[in-house]
Amino acid sequence: MNHGETPRYIAVDGPIGAGKTTLVGMLANDLGGEAIFEPAFKNPFLEEFYKDRKRNAFKTQLYFLLNRYQQQLELQQRNLFSTVTICDYTFAKDHIFAEINLSADEKALYDTVYALLQPRLPVPDLVIYMQADAPVLMQRIKKRGLGYEKEISSDYLEQLTEAYNSYFFSYTDSPLLVVNSSNLDFVNRPEDWADLKKTILNHKQGIAHYHYVTK
Question: Which member of 13, 62, 99, 162 has the greatest number of CB atoms within 10 A?
Fold first, then answer.
């Protein structure tokens, strides 16, 4: 990607309730691109996982891993870079969840499979990490009222937020924009959206942190 170009492949990541899906849809609409959403609702083990994480973590995680891999592979095969593509996860997301949910033995087996799959996939031109405080995430999760998310605890959200922060603290595979969405309302405030979108399109290299201040 040249410095003056719009990124062709943008990946948005972050914990549950951070605003990933909304941001992906709005970016795709404004840039005339294609929005790619992970098939979360198709995982038959997800509801069981939130009821009993320890018992159901491995099969849930492996299902996600293989589905995300298949989706990413299909994107690559149909010429990902012919249009702007905005995806609501990074492949690394799977590894972040595995880190906090799997036992040591499960994680060792998972890592073997992950290491075989990850090198075959495309690397984003830009990664946007949507960050938010755990109480804000919990409030948003309750507001949208999805059935399988009712079992999510505040402790789990805290753990997940820390795992995301830890991973992206040392992320260097792509240009990275860290967006704190706790006080950001880019859906209902046009000025928030204009400022955020401008920042996204102007970020070309390294790591930058975005904290919107109401003007």
Answer: 13
